[in-house]
Write a sequence for this structure.
C-alpha cells in the first residue's frame, strides 16, 4: 500500500468515526429552543415545558402533544409539535376543548434544537 492510499483510508476512517459522534437520531426527543430564549425538553412521553413544569404527553418519534398544565399561562390549551427535520420542530397551540383538530389551528412557531453547551 502506498503512503497516499494509506492516508486516504485513514482520512475516510477518521471522518466516519468523527461523524458518528455528532449525528442526531431522527426523533423529537431532546432540548428545543425558540428565538426568544424559551426552551423545552422532551424525553419519551415526558416534557419539561417552557415554564419549567414536568408533565407527560402523547409521544411518537416525530410528534408530541400535551395539554398545558394548571398554573401556566394558557393552561388547558393543547400544544402539538411536529419534527420537520432533525433540527427543527413546528409547534402549534390550540383549544383543548375542541374536536381534536383545534390544536393544529394556531400559528406555527419554529423551534430549533438547542446547540450543545460549550465549556
Amino acid at each position: 500500500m502506498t503512503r497516499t492510499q494509506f492516508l486516504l483510508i485513514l482520512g475516510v476512517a477518521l471522518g466516519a468515526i468523527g461523524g458518528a459522534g455528532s449525528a442526531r437520531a431522527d426523533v423529537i426527543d431532546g432540548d428545543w429552543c425558540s428565538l426568544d430564549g424559551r426552551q423545552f425538553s422532551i424525553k419519551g412521553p415526558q416534557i419539561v415545558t417552557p415554564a419549567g413544569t414536568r408533565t407527560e404527553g402523547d409521544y411518537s418519534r416525530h410528534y408530541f402533544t400535551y395539554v398545558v398544565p394548571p398554573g401556566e399561562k394558557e393552561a388547558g390549551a393543547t400544544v402539538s409539535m411536529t419534527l420537520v427535520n432533525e433540527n427543527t420542530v413546528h409547534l402549534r397551540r390550540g383549544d383543548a376543548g375542541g374536536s381534536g383538530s383545534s390544536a393544529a389551528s394556531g400559528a406555527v412557531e419554529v423551534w430549533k434544537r438547542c446547540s450543545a453547551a460549550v465549556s
Remarks:
- The chain has a mean pLDDT of 81.
